[in-house]
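Predict the holo structure. Ligand: pyridoxal-5'-phosphate.
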Amino acid sequence: MTLPHSGLPRDEVFARLDVLRRDDLDSRGGRTWAYVYDSGRAEVDEVAGQAYLAFLHENGLDPTVFPSVLAMENDVVGIAVTHLGGDEHAVGSFTSGGTESCMLAVKAARDRLRERSGPGRARVVLPDTAHAAFSKAAHYFDLEEVRVGVDPTTFAADAAALTAAIDERTALVVVSAPQYAHGVMDPVEAVAAVTAERDVWLHVDACIGGWLLPYAARLGVEVPPFDFRVPGVTSISMDLHKYAYCPKGASVVLYRDADLRRHQFYACADWSGYTVINPTMQSTKSAGPLAAAWATLHHVGDDGYLDVARRTQAATRRLIDGIAAIDGLEVLGDPRLSLVAAHAPAYDVFEVVDEMKRRGWYVQPQLAHGASPANVHFSVTATSEQVVDAMLEDLAAACEHARGIEVSDERRTFLAALRGLDPDAFTPEMYAGLLAAAGLGRAASGPNAGDGAALPPDMATINAMLDALPAALRERLLIAFLGELFRPAPGGRADAVSPGAG
Ligand SMILES: Cc1ncc(COP(=O)(O)O)c(C=O)c1O
């Protein structure tokens, strides 16, 4: 890819961008049951978009230069603290997303442990179901990750097993409210009783549920205490770009008091440039996401959020009942909020996912892990209410389709062989071979020679293969795949995305 010699006219720029997005999932309208959150109110998106653009060029790097950025952040964090039962001592930061919020909490807890106990490798104790963001944090910040199995029926963390894993190098314990995979709540109070007594940091990952849970409780859903009202909860992550329906790039990480948050901050005055003071990971950052979050929260308001929560709850109940009525499909655990996972012991759920895609729906495949079998995951949002019945009709048909697919003996043998592979014996060539076998390899010849890997339309075979592989091999294979996927567009390809070529 090279720059166009002369700048493209505005219309041409947008026409090309439209071509680039032609294969994207619909983010609005309810057909996409993962990744996107739709309040079903177009004017909420408009208000957010306008605020985003209005602050696009303000830089969050230095809160003393753009006081609006500081004021908006204090407002948004203040709203979040109130929402989650924090008192006048609670503080927090606005971050780019759930992963950043979780990672910052881990980093803060690690640094507090270092201050208290000196050098030595810190540990993070967490249930199997805690989000991968915590594994990423352990990897980036060099903590030992201690994963503890969950109850095999409810998929909730086992409070006794989790707290039994605490030792003197434990920087923090993590629980979720709720966890993503099955949408079930961990026993926050039971874990907090022990961490409080032992003076250990407890982080509640409420990235996906934090905003919705208090509204669900007001609507009569049984919500166990999970926030700062529980003594012993040290920090909480909560995303605004999920059930607060703010545009992406909006989350908060909250701390019971400012002394805890101090460990999150970074300052550098020991170089030759401007003084760096960074509360979060990024340095230069657009104020657009913050302004959009501020605008969305104020525009929707408390009654608006109660209303979208009501619609989300109605759709969730309808989904759970609808799944129960489909032969062979079973909900995992007892989800109450808005995330539902279902498995099919007698047929391949990955075939269900592919058939749903052919029918115009995106539902998310989840691989087997620990006690959790391979399953299909649904994130319910306010718009789901309008489409849930139509979706369930197609889901029943997709399950029928999957039931009719015979798994060949060759495929069974191939998958069994994958289960026994040793990650350490694998060479880069073997990864390339495995990627090619899955149809994910880079085109070696033909019109697309040299292009990065592209996803085939049907993913069931690939998902079955990933499902069979040991986790370490899955990860290495996925990293090899990413290496294929992200390749600079070759020279002269600028025209390839022109509307004419589309
Ligand atoms: C419980 C939980 N924690 C953390 C995250 C990570 O959030 P993000 O994708 O915004 O980085 C998610 C995302 O779904 C989540 O569900």
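The longest helix spans residues 288-324. The CA atoms of residues 25 and 32 lie 7 Å apart.
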